[in-house]
Amino acid sequence: MNSTPAFPAASLLGYPRIGRRRELKKAVEAYWAGTIDEAALDTAAQEIQLTTARRLFDLGLTETASIPGTFSYYDQVLDATTHIGAVPARFGELRNAAGRLGINAYFTLARGTAEIQPLEMTKWFDTNYHYLVPEIGPETDFSVTSNRIVEQFELAKANGFETRPYLVGPVTYLLLSKASDDAPAGFSPLSRLEDVLPVYAELLSRLAAAGAAWIQLDEPALVSDQDVPAAEVKEAVARSYEVLTSATERPAILVSTPYGALTELLPTLAATAIDALHIDAFKGAVPSAGELALLAGKTVVAGVVDGHNIWRNDLAESAARLDVLKDAGLTVAVSTSTSTQHVPHDVEEETQLSAELRSWLAFADQKVAEVVTLAAHVGDPASAAPALAEATAVIASRAAAAGVRRPEVRARLAALTTADFSRSSYSVREAAQEQTLHLPPLPTTTIGSFPQTSGIRGARARANKGVITSEDYTQLMKAEIKRVVELQEELGFDVLVHGEPERNDMVQYFAENLEGFDVTVHGWVQSYGSRCTRPSILWGDVTREHPITVEWAAFAQSLTEKPMKGMLTGPVTILAWSFVRDDQPLGETANQVALALRGEIADLEAAGIKVIQVDEPALRELLPLRRADQPAYLDWSVNSFRLATAGAADGTQIHTHLCYSEFGAVIDAIDGLDADVTSIEAARSRMEVVGDLESHGFGRGVGPGVYDIHSPRVPGRAEVSELLGKAVRHVPARQLWVNPDCGLKTRGYAETEESLRNLVAATKDVRAQLV
Closest by alpha carbon to 564, among 608, 595, 521? Predict the structure, then answer.
């Protein structure tokens, strides 16, 4: 590379890739179902990419490389895996005759086969996005096995848009990887860095040959504390960018560091020859004067617009941060703190929201406008002054709006005492619950939801449009509940669920029934693969005006003599899977939600429900990336759960559920929740969690999942028996429950019934061995 091209004054780190109407989801699922072929899938994907490029260009991202090339069919980490050929040995030979990993191989890694488990899935830093965990061992053979990153750049260029290709950076990729099953004890995937770097260099060379001016290498692992020694991470960063910047033919390199402050690794990156460094200047502080001096000669891409939440930017505050960088003599460009893949496309489409609420919000398209405005401020402050003043006025009006602060809610919180956060000892509760429930060893249950069929979704849509009456809708949902209860009775489950047919989403359902929330119509964001959610908007103080779940739970209990679980979503998960107000500490908001749930639990108990599950699958998700910040988070998150549940009677069995996380990091917090039974994802990770449970001495009920519901494969009876056998070897049988990893909402009935039948049969096999 002879000279460094200018980095665009305004850009994004990434943009939603599912399509404004979830076109990618629909195309991918049609391909999986066999109703469209690969050519049709490619056509749909290309149209989404080009529509995105046109939209961003029209919104003001007109400079070369200002439009990020962050499209993915499924997951950006899986993209990196298939680009560098990191296929675990258990998948066999997935490469085609040309040595490539095509789209079928790509989806096989994501979804597995009837015989092979897919890659493990876990959370992407502190977001509700999930990535597929690479498996690296001494035997992993790295080579360029996909040219998709080049092909996507060439597609955009042929249509008049010079995008900025994107790839997860080599250090983050290896730090996020796990050791393969065949790796020796103590093996670190980071030890394979020297073998990975030539493959990255080859990809950069191919992009340069295609005419790419810039590439974005995403290194968010550098803003979080790692289990790998800090000196090794520092050495890996220095070595990686020594190798990649020394390539003769390469694009200019932007290293992006979203989700927090770079801190101790900033000098390391500054000492390399990278051409631009992105810093999260929204969540992290602006670097010190000494650190800024180290960045002389590089473009500093300041992420001053929040890519992770939806509130309108305080443009005046952001402008002040940019002024600090500019006054230090640096070349400054403006961007988002993270990819905007975490927010919906366009708030202007949400016409059902009040004009006042819409004025407080910025979805992805509005964030582009904010970035463009702030870039104009860097060039000419006077030109952006009116926009800064308008944003300041809107933020002030939001603070004074009705419902944002409710005196009665704040008075109730202020009156709480220590006793409101504690139940009786577990031994007392266990005895009371044994007398009430009379459950067998290894009790079987499911996590909550059953498949949401097209009939269920159609009935909900017709009810929302007024085509059928609310009474008709209620009867249709009760018929589905009856079907689900009868199925569980026939299969032989011990603790039943009603299947949640009336719920569109485990958070939105509560948001629609609590004050202080609003919901969107088109506000979809990607959770993983083709799975999309519509996070609710938590904008004001939270109250519960009426019971939410009691009617459905009581009806379901009337259909069976077996215990029926009441199903609630916990306060931390409601926060994690919503767009939450940013004007007060999260702990205060969590306690408001917890008080609403506490009232719901009391009403469920009064209706005769003896088992109540309060799901917290997102407990690990919000854990701060820096260890020093974690104790404060764990304190308020655990306490909010305890506030919600501590009013329950001793004989009421409180369950909770967690999924897709590294549980060892929060095992103390899980224990601190003081739930009577905790169900945990464990099937895809092949029961890794039981070692943590054993070493911790976890003493209450626990259900490590034996059925991975995020894959269409059906686990066999022998497979489930093997997983249960491993669990029994690490956790006392009297504590163990048997359940799937998560709810069954996204699965079909045929695979669900077969899987659950195998689960019950395997449980009987293992029970027989306990005698």
Answer: 608
3-state percent helix, strand, coil for the chain, nearest multiple of 5: 45, 15, 40
Place of tokens 């810039």: 214
Amino acid at 370: E
DSSP for 510-549, please give it. HHTTSEEEE--SS--EEEETTEEE--EEEEEEEE--S-SS
Tokens 């949401």 sit at which residue? 452
Residue 412 neighbours by CB distance under 10 Å: 14
> What is the H or E stretch that residue 207 is in?
helix 193-210
pLDDT score of 218 more than 90: yes
> CA separation (Å) from 253 to 99, 160, 204, 620?
28, 22, 9, 33
Give the distance from CA 7 to its chain's centroid.
30
Residue 346 phi/psi, 5-degree rounding, is: -150, 115
Q: Say if CB 611 and CB 564 are below 8 A apart.
A: yes
Residue 131 β-bridge partners: 122
What whole-number distance in Å separates Cα of residue 348 and Cα of residue 355? 10
Q: What is the mean pLDDT of residues 471-486?
A: 96
Closest by CA position to 558, among listed 502, 607, 499:
607
Tell me the backbone φ, ψ of residue 216, rounded to 5 degrees. -105, 115
Burial classification of residue 207, based on how many CB atoms lie within 10 Å of its CB (0-12 exposed, 13-18 middle, 19 or more buried): buried
CA distance 281 to 347: 24
Rounded Cα–Cα distance for residues 645 and 673 (Å) = 9
Cα separation, 738 vs 495, in Å, equals 10
Task: Please list, residue by residue across 170-196, b when 16 or more beta carbons sit within 10 angstroms of its beta carbon and e when fewer do.
Answer: bbbbbbbbbbbeebeeebbbbbbbeeb
Condensed to tens digits (0 to 9), the pLDDT of residues 292-348 reads: 999 999 999 999 999 999 999 999 999 999 999 999 999 999 999 999 999 999 999
Alpha-carbon span 385 to 382, nearest angstrom: 5
Average pLDDT, the chain: 95
CA distance 666 to 680: 12
Q: What is the mean pLDDT of residues 629-642?
A: 96
Taking the C-alpha atoms of residue 182 and residue 184, their distance in angstroms, rounded to an integer, is 7
Show which residues are catalytic: 710
Return d(Cα 52, Cα 345) in angstroms, integer: 10
**CA–CA separation, 569 vs 677, rounded Å?**
15
- How is residue 331 written in tokens? 């070349």
**Pairing of β 299-305 and β 121-123:** unpaired
* pLDDT above 60 (res 661): no
Structure token pair of residue 657: 């559920």
Number of H helices, E strands in the chain: 27, 21
Instruction: Kindly report, residue by residue over 296-312, the tens digit of the pLDDT.
Output: 999 999 999 999 999 99
CA angle 631, 570, 22 (to 5 degrees): 105
Euclidean distance between CA atoms 661 and 226, whole angstroms = 15
Helix (H, G, I), strand (E, B) or coil at 642: helix
d(CA 94, CA 101): 6
Give dist(CA 87, CA 91) in Å, integer: 7
The model's confidence at residue 500, banded by pLDDT at 50, 70 and 90, is very high
Categorize the per-residue pLDDT at 662 as very low, low, confident or very high, splitting at 50, 70 and 90.
Answer: low
Average pLDDT over residues 559-578: 97
